[in-house]
Amino acid sequence: MKVLSVSFENYRNLHDGGLQADETTNIICGLNAQGKTNLLECLWLFTGNRSFRGAKDQELVSMGNPDRDCVLTLSFESGGREQQSSLRVTGGRRKAEKNGVMLKSAGELTGAFCAVLFSPDHLSLVKDGPSFRRGFLDTALGQIRPTYGKLMAQYSRTLQQRGALLKDIPHHNDLRDLLDVWDERVVRLGGRILFERARYTAALQKQASPIYEGISSGKETLGISYKTALCDHPQSLTQVQWEQCFYEKLRQAQGEDIQTGNTSVGPHRDDLELTINGLSARSFGSQGQQRSVVLALKLGEANVLAQSIGEEPVILLDDVLSELDASRQEYLLNHLKGRQVFFTCCDPAGIQLLRKGKVFFMEDGCLKEGEES
Ligand SMILES: Nc1ncnc2c1ncn2[C@@H]1O[C@H](COP(=O)(O)OP(=O)(O)OP(=O)(O)O)[C@@H](O)[C@H]1O
Ligand SMILES: [Mg+2]
Q1: Which of 9, 34, 58 to mutate to test the pocket of ligand 1 (most atoms within 8 A of CB)?
Q2: Using one digit for the tens of pLDDT, what is the confidence trace for 92-112?
Q3: In the prediction, which pLDDT does 328 show?
Q4: What digits encode the pLDDT tens for the residues 294-331?
Q5: I need a surface site. Which of 22, 215, 234, 240 has the fewest CB within 10 A?
Q6: Where are the beta strands (DSSP E) in the chain?
Q7: What's the average model confidence in pLDDT over 47-68?
Q8: What is the tally of structural domains in the chain?
Q9: What percentage of the chain has pLDDT greater than the value 70?
Q10: How far is the CA of 132 from the centre of ligand 2 (A)?
Q11: What confidence tier does 373 reach under pLDDT thresholds 50, 70, 90?
């Protein structure tokens, strides 16, 4: 998978224009607040996901010209042929086309163009609560199985409907019978999510652990496991077994759920446990160790994705070089051979490591191709 070119109109602070990408390394260099992350975000949007900055669609439109559409176009190579996707933000909503055909939603772009992104915000994956780690699993799975996003949306909707019913039951006891119907739906959808997440976690552990060992020069071991209150050994369950576990626990929790009006067990409560040498990375990891864990997770994600789709995803690394010491930078660059990478950096010193590829300079939203210095 390779970006060939990208163009943007009326997008964030970027001046209308674009870039012809190098098939190996692309470095976007510039001072703070010039538009480097905006450019990576533009590439990321073609994965069919929403902005990694949690932005609303309208926020993508240039503030200076809010009534004009924002139009992004990507030309990329995938499956041995050149393809085109485009995104238009109009009336506050994203619309997408793939190879000239209008899609029902921008989410349908998922699976056509695949990328793995590291941004400094991803340190939340280690530092913050379980919802970030669930989000990581769900985004990663969404690129491997394009129907996974729909499954998640159906699960959330069903959970909301079960929640509304739980809140009504204390006032209308006859509604209790209806709960069985919703429980079965929640379990059917949730069982699939649990199965996919646990299987993905096992694949990720296999890929990310050796990478972490490499980053830490063989001194430390990274553990990754799916953590759920539903069962003790989540690695080896079939989808039917997941449904059975979930159903059992959901029934046990029914009384409590009616009291609180919330569903207390299920994939929406689970977590990804990350350990360094057997100790929680969140509670005991140093800054550098936590950073390395996130990098190993992201590079592991890229490997699992490559195995699954049969092509290397594009790697987007926002501000990663400045955070790593020389040996870690070297490891990272060696590890990325054979893949197309987009780096952003503030410090032109990062460019010294670049032996092959293109350098772009971003200044006040204006992108220029530069000479290697
Ligand atoms: N919709 C928008 N319209 C106009 N400007 C915007 C819009 N959205 C964001 N910006 C501006 O874009 C600027 C550049 O943001 P960006 O995050 O890409 O900078 P950066 O080059 O990555 O900086 P840093 O090195 O600090 O990470 C910000 O100052 C922000 O205010
Ligand atoms: Mg930035």
Answers
A1: 34
A2: 999 999 999 999 999 999 989
A3: 77
A4: 999 999 999 999 999 999 999 999 988 766 777 777 78
A5: 240
A6: 2-9, 17-20, 25-29, 70-78, 81-90, 93-98, 101-102, 115-118, 222-227, 271-276, 279-280, 314-318, 341-345, 358-363, 366-370
A7: 92
A8: 2
A9: 97
A10: 20
A11: very low
Ligand 2: distance of its center to the CA of 55 in Å? Answer: 14
Helices (H) and strands (E) in the chain, counts: 10, 15
Ligand 1 mutation pick, 10, 12, 53, 72, max ligand atoms within 8 A of CB: 12
| CB neighbours of residue 16 within 10 Å | 12
CA distance 155 to 267: 9
Give 9 Cα–ligand 1 centroid separation in angstroms: 15
Nearest to 302 by CA among 189, 158, 140, 177: 140
User: Which neighbouring-strand residues pair with 88?
Assistant: 71, 95
In the predicted structure, residue 3 carries a pLDDT above the cut 60: yes
What is the residue with the minimal CA distance to atom 5 of ligand 1? 13
Domain that holds residue 243: 122-309
Say which CATH number the domain at 34 has.
3.40.50.300
Q: What is the pLDDT of residue 350?
A: 64
Q: Ligand 1 centre and the CA of 8: distance in Å?
A: 15
Range with the lowest mean pLDDT among 201-205, 291-295, 368-372? Answer: 368-372
Ligand 1 — pocket residues by CB below 6 A? 12-13, 30, 32-38, 59, 61-63, 319, 346
Ligand 1, residue 60: give the atom nearest the CA: 1
Alpha carbon of 12 to ligand 1 centroid (Å): 7
Protein residue with its CA nearest to atom 27 in ligand 1 = 32
CATH of the domain at 211: 1.20.1050.90
**Final residue belonging to a domain, choices 309, 335, 365:** 309
What's the chain's length in residues? 373
Confidence band (pLDDT; 50, 70, 90) for 173? confident
Ligand nearest to the CA of 59: 1
Domain boundary residue among 259, 287, 309?
A: 309
**Does 190 score more than 50 pLDDT?**
yes
Q: How far is the CA of 23 from the centre of ligand 2 (A)?
A: 22
Residue 101 has which token pair? 């055909």
Q: Tell whether 265 and 291 lie within a shared domain.
A: yes
